[in-house]
Amino acid sequence: MADAQTSFPRRCLRIESLNRFAASSFIRMRSMVRFSVRSLSISGEGRVCILSGAAFRRGMVMCAALLPIFSVMDAQGAETLTAAAAPVPSLQTTPSEIQTIPLIPSLPSLGKPEAMAEAILLRHAMQREVPRTSLSITPEEKSRWIALTASAIKQAGIVLDREQLLIVVDRAPRMQYLLPVLADGGDPAGWMILGKAHVSTGQPGRKDHYLTPIGVFPHSTGILDYRAQGTYNENHIRGLGVKGMRVWDFGWQNARKGWRADGERGDIRLLMHATDPAVLESRIGRQASQGCVRLPAALNLFLDRHGLLDADYEQTAAYDISFRALLRPDRTPTPIAGKYMVVIDSSGAPL
Question: In 143-279, at which residue ranges do the beta strands (DSSP E only) sit?
C-alpha cells in the first residue's frame, strides 16, 4: 500500500487524510441507504418506513463529506481512490428515528347488488333509530326527487364514480325532508331512496334568516367538522343541540335573504346540525332555521354513527389525528358512504 501511495501525484497525497474520512463516510452512508431500503421492502401491515429528520440530516453530513473526493489515474491508466479506513463516529440509526406512515385506504367500492343490500340494511336502521322516519314514498315523489337531484349533480359537473349515498334535502315549504339516496354514475332511474325524515331549513320573512341555498355541497376535508358544546345562548337555547352532537360544516355559501323582497343575497356559514331538544326540536318539519339544515337529535346520531357523509373523513382519519378525534369511537361506517349534500326545492321556488 505504501509503494502505491508514493507513486501518486503530489496533489493526491495532500488530500489523503480527507479522502480516508470521505471513503469511510461513503461506506457508512451506503449502509444507511441499504438499511432504509431494506426496511422499506420488508415492512409489513401496509406501512412504509422512512428516516426521520434527524437521520436525514446525518445523511446530508455524509454527503457533504463526499464532495472533496478526487479520482486520479495511475501510470497504467487505472482509476485509483485512496480509501484507507479511518475511525469515524458511530452512525447508528435508532428505532425512534424510523417512523411509520399508514397508507391511505382506498374508498370502498361495492357492486350494485352489494350496495343495494347495504342500503336496505341502512333503511331498516334508519327506521329503527330515527322516530317518524317514513318509508312511504309515492312513485311521483321518487321520480321528482331523483330527477332534481340528478340535475343538480350534473350541473355541478360531478361524476359519481362509485355506488355512494347522497344526502338530499328538499327545502320546499310543504316538504322539509332529508332523503338518503343511493346513487351512481349510471341511469338515475336505478337510484334508491332509503327513506325520508323531517328537517328544518331557512325561514323566510324574518330578519337575519336566509333561505337555505340550493346546490351540491361537498363535505370536504378542507374544513374540519366539530361537535356541540351544549352551552346556552342569551335566550337560554342550545342552538347546536346537546353536548356531543355533530356539526357538519359546508363552509361559506351565498344565500338569499329571506326578509328581503328584492332577492338580495349574502353569505352564510352553511351547517347541518341538531337543535335544542326542549325548545326548538318540536318545530322541525317546517321552515324555522336561519339558513342551516336543522336535524332532530336522533337523525343527527344516525348520520354520525353510520358515517353517511364521511367517505373522505374516514380516509383522512387514517393519518390525521384531528379527524380520528372527531369521528365517533363507536361508529359503524357504511361502505357506501358519500360526501355530497344536495339541496333541492321541489316547489320550484326561486333560488
Answer: 164-170, 177-183, 192-193, 197-198, 215-218, 226-227, 246-256, 265-273
